[in-house]
Amino acid sequence: AQSVTQLGSHVSVSEGALVLLRCNYSSSVPPYLFWYVQYPNQGLQLLLKYTSAATLVKGINGFEAEFKKSETSFHLTKPSAHMSDAAEYFCAVSNSGNTPLVFGKGTRLSVIA
Amino acid sequence: KAGVTQTPRYLIKTRGQQVTLSCSPISGHRSVSWYQQTPGQGLQFLFEYFSETQRNKGNFPGRFSGRQFSNSRSEMNVSTLELGDSALYLCASSLGTPSSGANVLTFGAGSRLTVL
């Protein structure tokens, strides 16, 4: 069964600083990987997804993630944090075996002015 | 294009009562999934429906049930409510079939249930 580990339940960065949110996955087959963002009192919104094409995936709002099979990682980055990036971020994994999307516990990102 | 609509957005129940939550997927989406979100457990999968059939079920007691109608709208029901059922219940719809792991889920804003 697949699983996801997000390192750090809370990350705090200064405005303009690099954002790095860590995600490691476990899957017995090549995975599909996703990052979702949740703003307060809202549902989840897709940031980006990896589906075995390019290993560097670009998403919305300047975010990108790199799939590293050797490290079983799919970390999310953004070069320069904005105040509007403050939210909770979820990494998720799925495979093609008719199994549901499995989410990590989430990382809350705070951006300090 | 309308998004995923969940009703009600907020509700308060007491222990022992039952609750029904509704989800209208994006037009054309035939797959609907439900997740329970709590601070301690995060997002936990409840069930997934496709073409009125339950395709997957998470590890929840039988008090949690759901169904999907011919127009793809879905409902979930929780009977004999417990304090621990307090959570945000999220519905998501997708265009593809459950066997495609690349499905992108589009989430509604959720129904926040408080059990007193």
The quaternary structure here is heterodimer
N/C terminus separation of chain A: 41 Å
- Total strands of chain B: the figure is 11
Helicity range of chain A: under 10%
Q: SSE order of chain B, as H and E?
A: EEEEEEEEEEE
Indicate the overall shape of chain A.
Answer: globular
Strand content of chain A: over 45%
Report the span from N to C terminus of chain B: 37 Å
Q: Provide the structure class of chain B.
A: mainly beta
Strand-residue proportion of chain B: over 45%
Produce a short descriptive summary.
The complex is a heterodimer of chains A (about 110) and B (about 120). With about 110 residues, chain A is mostly beta strands.
Any key phrases for this structure?
heterodimer, A: 113 residues, mainly beta, globular, B: 116 residues, seven-stranded mixed beta sheet, four-stranded antiparallel beta sheet, 0% helix
Give the helix/strand layout.
The complex is a heterodimer of chains A (113) and B (116).
Chain A: E1 3-7, E2 10-14, E3 19-26, E4 32-38, E5 44-50, E6 56-58, E7 64-68, E8 73-78, E9 87-94, E10 102-103, E11 107-112
Chain B: E1 5-7, E2 10-13, E3 19-24, E4 31-38, E5 42-50, E6 53-57, E7 64-68, E8 74-78, E9 87-94, E10 106-107, E11 111-115
Parallel strand pairs in B: 2-11
Antiparallel strand pairs in B: 1-3, 3-8, 4-5, 4-9, 5-6, 7-8, 9-10, 9-11
Describe the structure in your own words.
The complex is a heterodimer of chains A (113) and B (116). Chain A is 0% helix and 55% strand. By secondary structure, chain A is mostly beta strands. The termini of chain A are far apart. Chain B is globular, with a radius of gyration of 13 Å. By secondary structure, chain B is mainly beta. In chain B, strand 4 and strand 5 (42-50) form a beta hairpin. Chain B has strands spanning 5-7, 10-13, 19-24, 31-38, 42-50, 53-57, 64-68, 74-78, 87-94, 106-107, 111-115. Chain A binds chain B through residues 31-32, 34, 36, 41-46, 49, 51, 90, 94-106, and chain B through 4, 33, 35, 42-43, 45, 48, 55-56, 58, 90, 92, 98-110.
